[in-house]
Amino acid sequence: CVTGVQTCALPIFPFDSLRAVVSQLLWQYTPEVAVAVEAVKGELPPLTEPYLATCVRRGDKILEARYAGLDAYVQPLQALAGRFRHLFIAGDDLEAMQALAALLPQFDCVYLQPAFTAGYDNASFRQLAAAQRRAAMIRFFAQVDLLRDSAHFVATRTTNVSYIVSADRKSTRLNSSHTV
Prior knowledge:
This protein has helices at residues 15-26, 31-41, 70-78, 94-103, 122-127, 130-148, 160-167; strands spanning 2-3, 6-7, 52-56, 86-91, 108-110, 152-155, 176-179. It is of the alpha/beta class. Helix 2 (31-41) crosses helix 6 and helix 3 (70-78) packs across helix 4 (94-103).
């Protein structure tokens, strides 16, 4: 701060910590949405211990970047197998999510049925009725919450979900991210 000739010292915060605080302040649900998100998360068995999470994006993402092959996820996830028993798999393509789970039998894999079973497509999403778009977004928010709450997150750098989840992570927390 500079006020006239006086100066005051500003505390220095690590960027990751400051970004995480801002992210957590901004990512707030209305009470109605919070209840709906918790109901969707309740479809899963309780994740009562630290868990690993990943997100497989398909759909119209191909217009922006090549899909990462499932094998690109397997190696970094397997490297963490000794530390975690549970793996939450988020995504927009049920077949890809199930295929990844099949490649990782050492984990107890869980996932929510995505709103778009064959990949999110923005043009198709915009054509849905308002109630269907809302339901799809609630499912998306539930996945993001579960990814954010994971002890370790593995994903590509090319998705908005990766940026949202990574923005929430403080570098000093146990929580960390790994990109494929």
